[in-house]
Amino acid sequence: MAEIHDLIDRVTEPELKAQLLAAVDKLSKQKKFGLVFEDHLPECTPLYEVPVQKGRLVSLKGGETNNLYVVLTITDGIAACLPKNGGEVAKFPVNELVSAAEFGEPIYPYLRPIDAVCNAPDSNLWHTLIEADNYHALQLLEYLYAGQVDCIYVDPPYNTGAKDWKYNNDYVDGSDTYRHSKWLSMMQKRLKLAKRLLNPKNSVLIITIDEKEYLHLGCLLEEMFPDARIQMVDSIINRKGVSRRGKRADTEKEEITQFSRVSEYLFFVMVGKGSVKKNMCNMLDTQIIDSQTDGSSENVQWLSMLRRGVAAQRKDKPKHFYPIFVNPETKAIVQVGEPIPLEQERLTVHVPSGLVAVWPMRTNGDEGRWQLKRETFVKALQSGTAKLGSYSKSKDRWAINYLNEGTLNEIKTGAIVVIGKDSRGALLLKRQDDKLVEPKSVWNQTSHNASEYGSSLLNGIIGKRFDYPKSIYAVLDVLRMCTGDKKDALVVDFFAGSGTTLHAVNLLNSEDGGHRRCILVTNNEVSADEAKTLTAQGFQPGDEEWERLGIARYVTWPRTVCSIEGHDINGQPLKGNYLGSDLPMSEGFQANAAYFKLGFLDKTSVALGRQFQQMLPILWMKAGAKGPCPQLEVGDVPPMLILPENGFAVLSEEAAFEEFAERVNEKPEIETVYFITDYEAGYRAMSKGLNAPRTFQLYRDYLDNFRINTRRDVR
User: Fold this and answer.
1) pTM over 0.70
2) Does one domain contain both 334 and 251?
3) How many domains does the chain contain in total?
4) pLDDT tens digits for 268-284?
């Protein structure tokens, strides 16, 4: 750099000299680690839903997306196409072509509902799976959740030289001399967008990788996150080892033996106050998890729900007098009755067959009251902080127990650790005192075995459809360390693969009563072998026969549905319990998930006001993805749309604002309001008349609200 500064000193024009010095200073700061790689042309976007027409930019289905043509004419289903970069006119059947958009050419996305699973109809918690190229999905997520994501966990392609990932729709293998720079170019573009999603005050990014790219990735992360704290963990995932055989570099023929691979690496990028939390285990010493533990501790006290002392009679708080119905055979609380009026006799309350009613009766036979009102007790029961206690034969009475506020606060601070749930959903607790330790940078846990708790577990759910999934308990440990104190964390995985991350989020929520929400993103590619077979059968990308075998539809979503509902792909109950708890896999999870496909609209063929129903899923997600995603029939946009169950409302006709404001202000559940107007002054005036904490302006040209693929996305 000294030589460059010497040359700049020869410049006599002051303004030019200052500009050159500023430019050199900027470049030197950008490249202080010296990571230089080819910036490959970004992927073009296939637009399967945009018709192939004269003048349209197209590519061949299944071919390299950056080999583009311009359609000159279409006659009898045959398109005459001119190569964009020059050459002779070529002719192709229209059904072999797909419309395409180059990088920098705006595209207009929408989310098309594909499927949903609802196993917790009373819960507002909805996870999301988006089938899409993750580059485009990340652009959309930036509009939705910029600066709001607490944790990003990704397991990108390891670039081992096998045909396990594509660039510009072409598989990258070991013979590609640019495979490292292609991988870095791919990762850099996605990490730039991911960085904008992370909460700058407190968040963590975790990336798994092996020895093929860990050095490059480490340098890239240092460049992109200069203010973050970055650590690398070495995690043993297969004690048996995976053979690494290669060929002599000089002959490329003779096989030589290499070290057998037993581990992989995890980069933790801690942003702002983001950190890893102390843990029960240091992660280096092998921890054998006993699935039969009852998690009891004499220092963790479950209190009686029966009120004692002052104001302990029924008349003192009549609404705290209600029956709790117990199945004495299964020893489980089945349902909670409603409080009865003070004048009503408790024995007049109907008791369902096979159940017994437990009332808050005092030792002297008087009618007492419960500590918690019905609504609070139900929530505690659902979160595992209330449970059925022991049965007293002498008193012919069941005990009802709960955790008081002091104990709940100790759980929040980490003084008491949730280690799982019992078979009836009650929390398994362990008081740590001063025994929590800092996790070490080498992990040696039997539960992280990718073969047993990754492949075998997944095969038991959906069959052998996916190679090398992560151990669910390895991902669980990562999430527990990074979001254990964030019960409402937003977790994103944009290399979703088999869907282990969402599965682990549900398991963590079941452990500690959390409401963490997970967003998965994956494409719908088929494997290289499947692509060859399908092509030989005459099928192309976009055909139903091709798409149904893609990873999103064939692996990620089936695993999500099955794990939530507690059965395998054939409808049979899942076998066994989750490690560290008595929670049967067959019970599934109290969770919901929605599956969307990211599609693209043709701006030239969209009638204004006719695509609003296709924008609703985007508005739903931006408002927090509460309740089932609303849907509208195709047609005119209603003057207003008020959806308290989803937490948002939309005003499309400004003349209806007075009525709209009155109705919205009556609904405290509505926290997000969208105004469809082109006038910013009108938007600001209307926003002031609402109690909703968040308002957004949408332009009447709906498509322009969500335009992506502009060059700003990679600045």
Assistant:
1) yes
2) no
3) 5
4) 999 999 999 888 788 99
